[in-house]
Structure formats: C-alpha cells, structure tokens
Amino acid sequence: MTELKNQITPPPTLIARARQILRGPVLVGVIAALIAIGLSVFGMIRNAETTVNLNSLFLVVVLAGGSWGLIAWAIATAAVEAGKD
Questions:
Q1: Euclidean distance between CA atoms 11 and 33, whole angstroms
Q2: Burial level of 72, CB count in 10 A (0-12/13-18/19+)?
Q3: How confident is the model at residue 42, as a pLDDT?
Q4: What pTM, to 2 d.p., does this model score?
C-alpha cells in the first residue's frame, strides 16, 4: 500500500487537460465553431469564384466560427441553467 503512495504520477496529457477545461456548454460551443469553420472553408474551396487568401480565411474563422460558437454556447448555457431550476 505504501508503494502506491510513493509513486509519482505523470503530468496530465494535453487531451486530459483540454477535457477538464472543455465541459458542458463550452464544449458544445467549440464543436459548433469547428464544424462551422470546416464547412465554410470547404465552401470557399469548392466555389470557383471565391479567391482563397489569408484575409478571407481569417474572416471565415472569425465570422462563421465565432458566431456559431457563441450562439451554440449561449443556447447550451441557457439549457443548463433552465435545467437547474
């Protein structure tokens, strides 16, 4: 029994630390933002008339990812708060 107490536990991995931070509504918002960014980038690449440059990619990340992530986070937070009452 004392041998188990003396063992040094390894530091948590990056995935373990991310799972501690990303829980509940934040996880929902991040997943929605990643899906929105992926679909928007796919749409930009697929559309032949769109010029793909750093500026347009930045706007896709900010506008699509930010707005969908924020909206999904707000709805998930409201659902959690309503469930507490």
A1: 29
A2: buried
A3: 92
A4: 0.74
